[in-house]
Specification:
By secondary structure, this protein is α+β, with helices and mostly antiparallel strands. The chain is built from two helices and four strands, in the order αβαβββ.
Length: about 80
């Protein structure tokens, strides 16, 4: 999560993320693709119920796309 927050600060500015949550996507077979971080921040141009999901691949932060709040788990891990 820390690497994703740092990536957002470097890419979009120094605004603090509003919400950062763990996100598990079971449609991928590769373990490193299944675990991601969902972020909603003031600096991101998103609707109020949307998050951008990120994952790590070989130490690099990869943006996966936008997801609706209903697709997130009910509790943080």
């Amino acid at each position: 999560m820390r690497q994703v927050v740092e990536h957002i600060e470097q890419t979009y500015g120094t605004s603090e993320p509003v919400v950062v949550k763990s996100y598990y996507n079971d449609k991928y077979r590769d373990k490193d693709k299944r675990y991601a971080v969902a972020v909603r921040a003031d600096v991101l141009s998103l609707k109020p119920n949307e998050y951008i999901t990120y994952r790590l691949q070989d130490g690099q932060v990869i943006e996966m796309g936008v997801i609706d709040e209903e697709g997130l788990p009910k509790t943080e891990r």
